[in-house]
Amino acid sequence: xxxxxxxxxxxxxxxxxxxxxxxxxxxxxxxxxxxxxxxxxxxxxxxxxxxxxxxxxxxxxxxxxxxxxxxxxxxxxxxxxxxxxxxxxxxxxxxxxxxxxxxxxxxxxxxxxxxxxxxxxxxxxxxxxxxxxxxxxxxxxxxxxxxxxxxxxxxxxxxxxxxxxxxxxxxxxxxxxxxxxxxxxxxxxxxxxxx
Length: 195
Prior knowledge:
The protein is of the alpha/beta class. The chain is built from six helices and six strands, in the order βααβαβααβαββ.
């Protein structure tokens, strides 16, 4: 069985402002770095063999903190698991979108990547990484929307309506016998809970 831990990056200033990030290459804020450290500490009690990251800075920084704590090198950067491209709405808040395009802005063609394209892109990368390291325990640091899109394709029966928290981990496994995926843990961020 192959185990994959899907991790959403730590928080950024734009997360706090409610701005769509998409492919914009923002860094973690101070809280995001702290979240990554808390997750890294949690993961240090588990067995992980490889770590991959989206090529966007906020994911790379999260992966670097984890890799250092686990004594691993980042195995690879995967542009295929970068966040969904958000076209003209990148950098905007909900209020700014309404002011610019009206309340029906979601019905307009604003250059966003389609959900179907992101599902295919993200799930294919996860499948490729799993195939590269069968039977291993692999971390993939990525982004909230692309991870939920990928999970929709890999595990259609999974209720992925809950948004992923910063530095949450979702653990999925792939059966070597039939290639089926199973979700063992979804959106777990217990490392951020105050004691």
